[in-house]
Design a protein that fits this description.
alpha/beta, three-stranded mixed sheet, 13 helices, 27% helix, WbsX
């Protein structure tokens, strides 16, 4: 391509307004943005083109292009400095560069039309590109002592308790800090979370998706919160200092580690009591109000882990939450589903997605639901689900639950080279013109799910391989 503009900013006089970036649509009241190509502006365009091109162009209404915002990339050799100077001198007379914000007829407004149009009439390729993928890593906020683990599994129990008992030649363990890793850390330690931030930023991770645990019902704590210390510590000390969002892990806790109930023993219930909806939302606002919280068009982004468990409760609850969001001064909520096998295994019938704004590809669940080659580890297309029209792609670093279930046979290994190839394929597909998902979130499972062996953190078998 000889001219590239950000997705939704490149348009002609007959481009449908609904194809434009949302922030630009307000300037064009009709179905097409003809106002951007009025007679006065087009006269300046013709003057500039005729100054540098032999053929006289009197039919620019059919060829005119504009890049809203004047931000684009063009090959210098296709423009030529002498051409730029000639065009500039041709239109310098009646207008000039502005020194601040202006509505129309500053020199930059002519240039944002002249350059892409000049390339187009010469038969050059002009295109849009989507935003760069924003890699969001799912983050498990455990690895510290808390009340419920002490009560259910024994004093001092953490995920490390199980992992330490596994064979380090077969199962990944955390790389020692003496070798640049994080070791067997405690997430209540601010220095550990600061090091996580440094590693993530140095390797292109945009932000973290923290699992959030809130329970209702007879077995739930009175304040509803579980495994909350790390998230609240992040609010207090600012580490990791990077974009983040929450994913409500809304399944009950049972002895099975999966949220199912085959053992008959529920340790923490999840009843979604209506009387708790407002209290839950007010707690979430502590995070929504943080300057690092990820928003889409002003609305905080919130993921839900298992919507099929909510049944008919989901729609009314989201309606209440969106009303509360507006009362709180937010533009709304951008709520997304975790797209995986749980959608097909729910006990409450098909999951209701009508109140959701999208879904992200949760690869451990996707692997169990679709006939995907074992070599695949990242998304390269949307899945054929009519109710999931906005799908955020993702990847995983493997899946192996043997630290929790030693006899587990469903093992999915992803090597360093396979991981790199999968990401390259996915990111390349995300850059195609036909894909128009904004923002371009990319959800990776996971940053630190050690007992599912889904980790990017440095480990004893791969070192920094998957981070690099």
């Amino acid at each position: 391509f000889d001219d590239v503009a950000a997705s939704g900013t490149l348009f002609g006089p007959f481009t449908p307004v609904d194809r434009l970036y949302k922030g630009m649509r307000k300037y064009f009241p009709g179905e097409v943005p003809k106002e951007a190509f009025d007679d006065k502006m087009m006269a300046l365009m013709k003057k500039a083109l005729n100054a540098v091109y032999i053929t006289k162009y009197d039919h620019l209404k059919n060829f005119g292009l504009c890049v809203g915002g004047s931000i684009f990339w063009a090959r210098p050799e296709e423009l030529g400095i002498e051409v730029m100077l000639a065009g500039n001198s041709a239109i310098e007379g009646p207008i000039a560069w502005s020194t601040g914000s202006t509505e129309k007829l500053a020199l930059e407004h002519a240039m944002e039309r002249w350059i892409p149009t000049w390339l187009l009439v010469r038969g050059r390729r002009v295109a849009e590109i989507p935003p760069a993928p924003k890699v969001m890593c799912l983050y498990f906020p455990q690895y510290h002592q808390f009340e419920e683990n002490d009560r259910f599994w024994g004093t001092g129990f953490t995920e490390w308790t199980l992992l330490r008992e596994t064979d380090p030649l077969e199962i990944k363990h955390p790389l020692d800090s003496s070798k640049g890793g994080l070791g067997w850390y405690d997430l209540e330690n601010v220095h550990v979370r600061q090091k996580q931030e440094q590693l993530a930023k140095a390797h292109g991770v945009h932000g973290f998706v923290y699992y959030h645990y809130w329970f209702s019902g007879p077995q739930a704590p009175k304040h509803h919160k579980v495994m909350y210390k790390v998230l609240e510590a992040m609010l207090a000390d600012g580490k990791p200092d990077m974009p983040f969002m929450l994913s409500w892990a809304n399944e009950p806790w049972t002895r099975t580690w999966t949220g199912g109930n085959s053992s008959g023993e529920i340790m923490l219930s999840q009843t979604y009591d209506q009387k708790d909806w407002e209290e839950h939302f007010q707690y979430l606002c502590r995070f929504f109000d943080h300057p690092n919280y990820i928003r889409h068009e002003g609305a905080p982004v919130l993921a839900l882990y298992r919507i099929e468990l909510m049944g008919k409760i989901l729609g009314p609850m989201l309606t209440v939450w969106r009303q509360l969001a507006v009362q709180h001064g937010l533009s709304g909520l951008h709520v997304i589903n975790t797209l995986g096998n749980f959608v097909f295994t729910g006990t409450n019938g098909p999951a209701d997605t009508s109140g959701l704004d999208g879904a992200f590809h949760f690869w451990p669940g996707i692997r169990a639901s679709w006939p995907i080659p074992r070599s695949e580890c990242a998304s390269s297309e949307d899945f054929p689900l009519p109710n999931e029209t906005t799908q955020y792609w993702g990847s995983y670093a493997g899946f192996d639950r043997r630290p929790r279930a030693p006899n587990e046979t469903a093992l999915f290994k992803v090597g360093v080279n396979s991981f790199a190839r999968g990401l390259k394929k996915s990111f390349t597909k995300m850059a195609q013109e036909s894909r128009s998902v904004v923002p371009n979130f990319f959800f990776h499972n996971a940053w630190n799910e050690w007992n599912e062996q889904a980790v990017l953190e440095p480990d004893t078998l791969n070192g920094f391989g998957k981070l690099d």
